[in-house]
Amino acid sequence: MSRREELAERLGQVQSKISRSDVTLIVVTKTYPASDVEILHELGVRNFGENRSEEGVEKSAVVDATWHFQGGIQSRKLRDIASWADVIHSLDNAGHISKLATAAEKNVDVFLQISLDGDPSRGGLLEADLPALAEQVMATANLTLLGLMCVPPVSADPRKAFTEISHIHRRFISRYPGATSLSAGMSGDYEIAMDCGATHIRVGSSILGSRAPRE
Ligand SMILES: *Cc1c(COP(=O)(O)O)cnc(C)c1O
């Protein structure tokens, strides 16, 4: 089977499981080459995700698409990230928002990342800390608040975790009515995330194949 046939088949399998028309499938191409991005673009994919700025710079130059960043943010990389990313999913720090206010030369759509357990190694804010950052994003002219993003704790039961997230999101929307998007769900759990209201799913290995561990 050619790479094109393989990608077409796996993409079709994921697309066939998308249960609502308001769900955006982001194909996470991290660690995979730009040639895969070109094939996926020919197959109709218009939303791609990356975790590292270097890869985003390189691959976003190859196709016309909406580019998403969902990796851990290093402050010194923010200007770089804002040069190619149309959407940042992993914002969880007031300093990073201030930096984007001056570093970004175009509009950037953002999600605030929430954490269910406060584990600092996985990023994200506790619910109580959301309003301060939401206010800051809304006061920043070049940032648009889309909603919330979450990666559940590794040990969590996905359905319980996504249900809790959807409740946090509902409370968030009642305060910030424009923030209707929910970025949740990866290869292992995107169907459950959609059941619980995800509007953006971020799927990598189910389409591209399992990644070799990095570093
Ligand atoms: C890598 C990554 C994904 C995609 O993960 P898969 O399990 O390969 O689908 C989604 N979201 C985040 C934050 C990631 O780091």
Overview of this protein structure:
By secondary structure, the protein is of the alpha/beta class. The chain has one domain (3-208): TIM Barrel. It has nine helices and eight strands. It has helices spanning 3-16, 34-42, 53-60, 78-84, 94-103, 130-138, 158-175, 190-195, 205-208; strands spanning 24-28, 47-50, 66-69, 87-91, 108-114, 143-150, 181-184, 200-203. It has an eight-stranded parallel sheet. The longest helix is centred in the C-terminal third of the chain and has 18 residues, at 158-175. The mean pLDDT is 96. Pyridoxal-5'-phosphate binds at residues 28, 30, 51, 70, 151, 186-188, 202-206.
Which labels suit this protein?
single chain, 215 residues, alpha/beta, TIM Barrel, 8 strands, globular, binds pyridoxal-5'-phosphate
Based on helices, strands and strand pairing, what is the structural class? alpha/beta
What's the overall average pLDDT, rounded? 96
Which cofactor or ligand species appear?
pyridoxal-5'-phosphate
In the CATH scheme, the class would be Alpha Beta
Q: At the fourth CATH level, what is the homologous superfamily?
A: Alanine racemase
Radius of gyration: 17 Å
**Could you name the CATH topology?**
TIM Barrel
Report the major sheet.
8 strands, parallel
Please indicate the count of domains: 1
**What would the principal axes of the Cα set say about the shape?**
globular
> What fraction of the residues are assigned to beta strands by DSSP?
15-25%
Helix content: 25-40%
Number of strands: 8
Our count of helices gives 9
Strand order in the sheet with the most strands: 7-6-5-4-3-2-1-8
How far is it from the N-terminal to the C-terminal residue, by CA?
30 Å
